[in-house]
Structure formats: structure tokens, C-alpha cells
Design goal:
Blueprint: E1 3-7, E2 18-22, E3 28-31, E4 44-46, E5 53-57, E6 61-65, E7 71-74, E8 83-88, E9 94-98, E10 103-107, E11 116-117, E12 127-132, E13 138-144, E14 150-157, E15 165-167, E16 176-181, E17 187-193, E18 201-207, E19 214-218, E20 232-235, E21 239-243, E22 247-252, E23 258-264, E24 270-275
Antiparallel strand pairs: 1-2, 1-24, 2-3, 4-5, 5-6, 6-7, 8-9, 9-10, 10-11, 12-13, 13-14, 14-15, 16-17, 17-18, 18-19, 20-21, 21-22, 22-23
């Protein structure tokens, strides 16, 4: 199954501005799709049934691709959407972080109708990833924005209809960039602290899903660079993946052992990572836009 990475572009790091596919050996197979509606892509997530890949486009729209890489659903342009991360919630809807409105909205699985705001605007200074626990709680990471302003914390909401937020962690060495909920319920964030600093420490930090206490820190060996870690995703076999500026790395989640660098790509500027599509899809990726080697 191909490994997919969204590569941001423009002011966000001069990446490829494409949805890239990588083979099992880490070789880039090119862009998954040449559809012009895919621009400066960010968050992505497979649908509840695994048949679609939801993708946040910098063109202020949400797309859904099938296993052949074709766009089959399109929200249409929603001015000011500015969608960041995305996850499928327990109700099957596709939830996205709205960076300008500083909140979260949900789209119906078939993209019919406008997005529904599930939290008030300005709920955090700058949203940096979110996820749902099995009991329905919603965890929202708050980080530092491109302008240097923000607040480093994680908020917990619910479960239930209550919008009351509680501070979930107390960690002076975290600056969240993405969030994922582990199968057992613990909360993980990719972190760069201090954010944007030349000497920033990059890591993946795991917190107890009940108490919010720091459980452990995942980090590669000192000779393996990890800069600007972003998207987190659990893959087959209990492997935790994290995509960063020029690479994607993998850890055995159960033991915390560093498995290795699964993708090494200059200018990758990775934002989100996932697995999607059959192996046969690799045979048609070459028809997409040329990606520099």
C-alpha cells in the first residue's frame, strides 16, 4: 500500500505543493494526482470505510479521492476556509482545523452541505492538530502560529455536547505541531520547541490519555535529522509515522524503538502522512506531474 505525503508549498517552505506517493523502499513515485484543484495540500485522512481519501487543499476546498487517485467529491471553494489538519470522527464526518477561524468544523461524508462549526471561533490562538478518543473526548492542540504568537497546550472537550474545555497537559518543553490519539487512548503530539528556533528540539511526546501526564518521548538517534515534525499517523503493524521537513520517520509504538527513516526527500516539507490505495496504484502514478529527483 503506497505511503502518501502532502507537501506544502509557497510561503510554507517551498515544498512541492503536491500529494506525493512513495513506494515501500522510500522511492518517490511522483504525484498521486495531477488534478489542479490540489494546491498546497495539508491534512488528509481516509474515510470511515477506507474507500476514500479526504484531502485539504490550499485552494480553500476539501476533496475526496478514490483508490485510483481520481477526485470524486469536491466541497467547492469556501472562501476563507484555510483548512489545516483533518481526521474522521466517530460519527463518520470529516473534521478539519480552520486556521483563520481558530476552530474546528465538520463535513458530511458525502460533502453535501456546508461545514458545521463544532467549536466556537477563536477557541485557541492557533490550532495545531486534534483527535478523538474512544469515549468521545476531543483533544485539540494549541501551538505557535507563523507570526510567532500562540499558546503551547492541549485542550480536552467532552465527551458529550458540552463545549467546556479543560487544560489537558502541563509541559514546559512542548510546542505542538500535530496531534494523534493512540489505539490505547494516549495522546501524542509532534513538537518543535522552541518553535522556529535554530536550536529547537524536535520530538514526539506521549501523554497519558486520562491524567495528561508525560509518559515518554520518541526521538530518533542523534545522527538522524528531524526538523519541523508535522503529521502523525499510525500505520500497519502498530508503527507510528511522523513526517517532517525533509524526511518521514517510523517508530515501533509498543516499544518506542526507532525503526528508521522511511522517506528521505529534500524539500519534502511534509504536512500529513497516511497509507491509501492498492499496490497497483503505483503503476499509474507516473502520469502525474513531474517531481524533481
Amino acid at each position: 500500500m503506497p505511503l502518501l505525503v502532502t507537501s506544502a508549498s509557497g510561503a510554507n517552505g517551498d515544498g512541492f505543493g503536491a500529494l506525493l506517493a512513495f513506494a515501500a523502499d522510500g522511492q518517490c513515485r511522483g504525484a498521486l494526482s495531477d488534478d489542479l484543484r490540489i494546491a498546497d495540500p495539508r491534512g488528509m485522512c481516509t474515510s470511515a470505510d477506507g474507500k476514500l481519501l479526504y484531502l485539504n487543499s490550499g485552494d480553500d476546498r476539501i476533496l475526496a479521492l478514490d483508490s485510483d487517485g481520481q477526485v470524486v467529491l469536491d466541497s467547492g471553494r469556501i472562501p476563507g476556509l484555510n483548512a489545516g489538519g483533518g481526521v474522521v470522527g466517530p460519527d463518520g464526518r470529516y473534521y478539519v482545523g480552520l486556521r483563520s477561524e481558530k476552530t474546528i468544523a465538520a463535513f458530511s461524508p458525502d460533502m453535501n452541505g456546508p461545514p458545521v462549526r463544532v467549536l466556537p471561533p477563536d477557541i485557541v490562538p492557533f490550532p495545531r492538530g486534534f483527535g478523538f478518543a474512544a469515549d468521545g473526548r476531543l483533544f485539540l492542540a494549541s501551538g505557535i502560529g507563523p507570526d510567532g504568537a500562540g499558546q503551547n497546550t492541549i485542550l480536552a472537550f467532552g465527551p458529550g455536547p458540552s463545549l467546556t474545555a479543560t487544560s489537558f497537559i502541563d509541559d514546559d518543553e512542548v510546542s505542538p505541531l500535530d496531534l494523534a490519539v493512540a489505539p490505547g487512548g494516549n495522546v501524542l503530539v509532534s513538537s518543535e520547541y522552541p518553535f522556529g528556533a535554530p536550536n529547537a528540539v524536535a520530538s514526539i511526546r506521549e501523554y497519558d490519555g486520562t491524567s495528561g501526564e508525560l509518559v515518554r518521548v520518541f526521538s530518533p538517534p542523534h545522527d538522524v535529522p528531524l526538523h519541523r515534525p508535522r503529521g502523525l499517523r499510525f500505520g500497519p503493524g502498530g508503527v507510528l509515522y511522523c513526517v517532517a521537513r525533509d524526511a518521514a520517520v517510523a517508530f515501533d509504538y509498543a516499544s518506542g524503538r526507532f525503526i528508521g527513516t522511511v522517506v528521505s526527500r529534500s524539500r519534502l516539507n511534509g504536512q500529513a502522512i497516511t497509507f491509501f490505495g492498492p499496490l497497483a496504484i503505483e503503476r499509474r502514478i507516473g502520469g502525474g506531474p513531474k517531481i524533481p529527483r
